TrEMBL record:
GO MF annotations in UniProt: glycosyltransferase activity
Keyword set, alphabetical order: Glycosyltransferase, Membrane, Transferase, Transmembrane, Transmembrane helix
Transmembrane segments: 281-301, 308-328, 340-362
Native organism: Niastella vici
Family annotation (Pfam families): Glyco_trans_2_3
Residues in Glycosyltransferase 2-like domain copies: 180-319
Gene3D superfamilies: Spore Coat Polysaccharide Biosynthesis Protein SpsA, Chain A
Name of the protein in question: Glycosyltransferase 2-like domain-containing protein
Keyword Metal-binding attributed: no
Domain of life assignment: Bacteria
Family: Belongs to the glycosyltransferase 2 family.
Xref: SUPFAM superfamilies: Nucleotide-diphospho-sugar transferases
Keyword flag GTP-binding: no
Amino acid sequence: MTCSDIVQGTKLKWYNNGLEMKKDICLLVPQFNEGGRENFLGRLDYFRELAREFKDHLDIILIDDGSTDGSFAKIDGYLGSHPDAFFFASVSPNANKVGALSQVALSVSHEFIILSDFDTNLDGLKDLLSKIDLWRANDSHMGYFFRLVPFEGSGKIFQYQQLEYCLARVRYKFHQRVYTVPVMPGAGCCFKRDILNTIYSRHSGLRNGEDREATMIGRRLGYSVSYLKNVQALTRTPLTMRALIKQRVRWNLGYLETVYFERRQYWREIQSFSVLGMRTLLDMFSVFFILALPFILLIIGMNGLLHLALLSTLYIGFVSWCYALLQVEPEECAEFRPKLIPMLLLFPLIKLCIDYTAWLGAFRQFAKNKYSGFGSRYV
C-alpha cells in the first residue's frame, strides 16, 4: 500500500467555491478531531486574518481529515457566518494526514504549496513571496523549510524544547549548506506542487514520519531544499513530560519507518560517506548507546568511582557540545538567552529520560507493526 492507494479509497469534497482558487500559492492546513481545543474558534479566526492579510498572494485551505468529534460541523458553521474566511475541503474517511494532503494537492492548480499544522502560526511569509521568482527558475530546488520555534508555553518542559529546537536549527543550517537536510518539518515548509505530488505518489502513506519520509524521497529524486530563517513556524509544543514522551514515541517510530521504507537511499548515503550518511550512523550509535546505558552501568557493577567517571564525562561532554553549537549560531537562541545556562545544565538529564523512554516505546511499536503491505515506489 502507498499514499496513492489511500487516496483512491477516500472521497474529497469542496465547500465555499473551492474550485475558484486562482493564486500561485496555497497553504494546506489539515485537522483531525481538533474540536476539543479551547481556542478552536480562535484558530479559525487566525486563518481568516491570515487569508485577509495575503488575499492577493495566498489561498488558505483547511482540510478536515475525516473528523469524528464534531469539528467539521464547527468549521462548516463558522463558514456560514464568514463565507469568505478561507477555503474548506473534507476528506473521508480519515486518510492519515498525508493522504488528505495528497488528495487536495492533486486537485488544486497552485504552483507552490505551503504545509502547516492547525495549531501553528506562520510569521514572515512575505520573505517567502520574495523568493518565488528565484525558486521558480531552479528546477532542482523542491522547497523551503521555515524556522520552527516553540510558541506559547512555560515551565521546564517548554524551556527544554526551546533549547532543543534551537540546537536542531543550528544543525539544520549546516545540513542546508551541504544539501543534506534530513526532514522538512510538516509544521512549516513549502514545496513546488508538481514535485510534492511526485513525492506523495511514492510515499507509504503512514503518518508518524510523513515529513521525514517525504524529504528523503525528494532527496532520492535529486532535489534540494533551503532554509528560510525569516519565516517562522510558531508551533505549540507539549507542556508535560508525559505528553512530550508520547509525541517523541511517534516521532521516533516515524524515523524507524522512514529508514525501513527508504533503506536503499540511506544505505547509499552511508556507502558514499555523505554528511547525511554519517549523521544516520551517528544517530544509530546514539540510540544504541542510550538504550544500552543501563546495561553498561550494570556491567561496571558496584564500582561507584567508575559510574561517576563515566556519567560525569558524558554529562560534561554533552553540555560542552551543546554550548559550542550555540556559539556557532548565537542568534538562534536570542529569544530565551536569559534562561539558557540553567536549562543547558538540566538539558542532558531531561533528554536522557525522554530519549530512553521514547526510543524504547518506538522500537516496541515498530516490532509489533506489520509493514509488508507498505512501502515507497522506487521508480
